[in-house]
UniProtKB/TrEMBL annotation:
<dbReference type="InterPro" id="IPR037171">
    <property type="entry name" value="NagB/RpiA_transferase-like"/>
</dbReference>
<dbReference type="InterPro" id="IPR042529">
    <property type="entry name" value="IF_2B-like_C"/>
</dbReference>
<dbReference type="GO" id="GO:0019509">
    <property type="term" value="P:L-methionine salvage from methylthioadenosine"/>
</dbReference>
<comment type="similarity">
    <text>Belongs to the EIF-2B alpha/beta/delta subunits family. MtnA subfamily.</text>
</comment>
<feature type="binding site">
    <location>
        <begin position="57"/>
        <end position="59"/>
    </location>
    <ligand>
        <name>substrate</name>
    </ligand>
</feature>
<comment type="pathway">
    <text>Amino-acid biosynthesis; L-methionine biosynthesis via salvage pathway; L-methionine from S-methyl-5-thio-alpha-D-ribose 1-phosphate: step 1/6.</text>
</comment>
<dbReference type="GO" id="GO:0046523">
    <property type="term" value="F:S-methyl-5-thioribose-1-phosphate isomerase activity"/>
</dbReference>
<keyword id="KW-0486">Methionine biosynthesis</keyword>
<dbReference type="InterPro" id="IPR000649">
    <property type="entry name" value="IF-2B-related"/>
</dbReference>
<feature type="site" description="Transition state stabilizer">
    <location>
        <position position="172"/>
    </location>
</feature>
<feature type="binding site">
    <location>
        <begin position="262"/>
        <end position="263"/>
    </location>
    <ligand>
        <name>substrate</name>
    </ligand>
</feature>
<comment type="function">
    <text>Catalyzes the interconversion of methylthioribose-1-phosphate (MTR-1-P) into methylthioribulose-1-phosphate (MTRu-1-P).</text>
</comment>
<keyword id="KW-0028">Amino-acid biosynthesis</keyword>
<feature type="active site" description="Proton donor">
    <location>
        <position position="252"/>
    </location>
</feature>
<dbReference type="InterPro" id="IPR005251">
    <property type="entry name" value="IF-M1Pi"/>
</dbReference>
<dbReference type="InterPro" id="IPR011559">
    <property type="entry name" value="Initiation_fac_2B_a/b/d"/>
</dbReference>
<feature type="binding site">
    <location>
        <position position="99"/>
    </location>
    <ligand>
        <name>substrate</name>
    </ligand>
</feature>
Amino acid sequence: MTIEQQHTQGWLQSVRWNSLEDHLDLLDQRRLPEDIVYLQLTTSEQVWDAIKQLAVRGAPAIGIAAAFGVYLGVRKFSGSREALLAEIIRQCDYLATSRPTAVNLFWALDRMKARAQALLGGTAEPVGVDAVKQALLDEARAIQAEDEETCRLIGEHALSLFEDGMGVLTHCNAGGLATARYGTATAPMYLAKEKGMSLKVFADETRPVLQGARLTAFELQQAGIDVTLICDNMAGAVMSKGWIQAVIVGTDRVAANGDVANKIGTYSVAVLAKAHGIPFYVACPMSTIDLNTPTGADIPIEERHEDEITQGFGKRTAPQGVKVYNPAFDVTPNEYVTAIITEKGIIRAPYAENLKKLFA
Ligand code: MRU
């Protein structure tokens, strides 16, 4: 399907492999909602930069883009099989330095590495360098295709928790733009629409980079879903009016004990939800669950440049020289999480036990 065809059907693909021209088309999410511009990426350095600068963002989409980045990093390689394996590992290690919090990035790079190791690490029937490069491209495409299916399944499970006419609040963008398609937190919203159910979505604008306003409100509106934009500091007021029956957000990493890292401000929403007796759901693929990270305190939280707060979008809104603290994510302790919704089903407390069972 072409970009134009997708657009007329009400969705935009954030990452597209262009097989005719052998490059990556990446929707520049920094320019939304005003401009729909695809960057043409031909090197792994450009992919690293696009992840760092938030041209592509959202945990699954970062992983997908990085996987294609590995292929771009080695597609012009010529040399021995041993040197190719070393170069693939170097490219993966390099791309892993782009952002620290979303574990999907490391998950996707590990998967690319494993594919290369399986083909190059002393197989009985040696595979040629060109075939390995093709296998890397195929793997990146598979990661993307599987994510679309995964998000749809998440949506099916999540929708079983929702009823027609419910008010649902979300924070940041865990939407189609952050994944291969459908999103995680937004997947039940798209599926509800397909099934003729109506949900009333409230999107927090999500300071400081406004993923909620620029991206979630944009993509839901494009899809004809009932969405109302609010400032982050209005969530409590909207809940107290009785307009919200569920909160659903995405996540960048779920620790083994069920603590959840997501966009800064998520923790405040979770506390507000608990105070109002509103269920707080977290939707994510299994690839976002990191059993090697014991608790939320062990999740590395990215800190970003102060300009995002003092002069976001080019207008200075704070005094010169003021001290700034700008963490991109916060951790919601597991006791605030009503359920974690994955492609394999709905997981509830005790999370340490039930998350482990999920992978067993
Ligand atoms: O800084 P961002 O825009 O990459 O942060 C994105 C989020 O926090 C999302 O909620 C999360 O990655 C889940 S996306 C399905």
